[in-house]
Structure formats: C-alpha cells, structure tokens
Amino acid sequence: MQRYHEAPQDLDRTIGLNRHYQDDWYFYERALTYLALNQPDKARADLALAMKLAKEHYEKDARNWRNSFNLALYYLAAQYNQPAEHLYRHTISQGASLERIRIAVQDLNDFLAVFPNHVQATSMQQLLQSSLT
Predict the structure, then answer these.
(1) pLDDT of residue 21
(2) What does the domain layout of the chain look like in residue ranges?
(3) Helices (DSSP H) in 18-97: which residue ranges?
(4) What is the pLDDT of residue 20?
(5) How far apart are CA 73 and CA 81, in angstroms?
(6) 7-131 CATH
C-alpha cells in the first residue's frame, strides 16, 4: 500500500505487544520501512537484530527452511550478498520443500516491489524459480 510513514508506528506496537517473543520478521519488516523512508541507521539496527535472532534459530535448527530463507533475505536487505547467495543455494541443496521455496520467491517478490532495482534480489529470485522446475 506504500503508506511507509504509518508503518513504523504500527510495527512498533506489534513488536511491543510481542516483546516476550521476539520475531525476527517484524524487525525485518520495520527495517524495510526505514529503508523506504531513507532512514538507513534505523534500518541497519533492525536488520542486525533480525539477523541475530534468525542466526540463533539457525544454529539450533539449520533444517528450519523458513528461517533459513528468511535469514538469507535479511542478508540481502543488509547488502551481505555473498552470504545470502550461499544460504539460498545451501537451503535448496539440503532439500527445502517446493512450498517453502515458493514462499521464499514470494518474499523476494515483496522485497522487489519496494526495491525493484536490487540486482542481487532479482538474481536470487531467478535462482529459486529455476529450482521449482
């Protein structure tokens, strides 16, 4: 809906309501909002927290494909392109389900709707789509 100016407050409330259960996805979404609003310092802080939480989950269960794809997406958003590509490729090679890959493609589609010129995200989207055939 591109109402980015309203989103940080909504996400602040969501994060506040869930403070006992810190979901990395909320921090990622708020980071994207900050990036769209050209507030890179706030975006970096939220991406760092999203990556930290997702890495902790990854260390506990590397075969949680949802988390693995999310962590790869967070890397892309933070411009850590090589770790992102490595994690996307690794997750595919380890047997992520087609449904989980489709969801990861949709997450990349959503990211590209906000940042259509992100070359690495486009490349990873193509990689994931090619693994569906």
Answers:
(1) 47
(2) 7-131
(3) 24-36, 40-60, 65-77, 81-93
(4) 46
(5) 9
(6) 1.25.40
The rounded distance, in Å, linking the Cα atoms of 35 and 13 is: 19
Q: In the chain, count of helices (H) and strands (E)? A: 7, 0
**Which residues, including other chains, have CB under 8 Å from residue 44's CB and lie 6 or more apart?**
31, 78
Enter the tokens of residue 85: 């590509």
- Is pLDDT above 80 for 3? no
Supply 6's token pair: 């309203």
> Burial, 21: exposed, middle or buried (Cβ in 10 Å; 0-12, 13-18, 19+)?
exposed
Residue range 107-120: mean pLDDT, rounded: 95
Mean pLDDT, residues 25-32 taken together = 90
Assess contact for 28 and 70: CB atoms under 8 A: yes
Q: Model confidence over 45-101: pLDDT tens digits? A: 999 999 999 999 999 999 999 999 999 999 999 999 999 999 999 999 999 999 999
Q: Which amino acid is at 62?
A: A
The HSE-up count of residue 120 (CA atoms within 13 Å, CB side) is 16
Q: Cα–Cα distance between 121 and 115 in angstroms, integer? A: 9
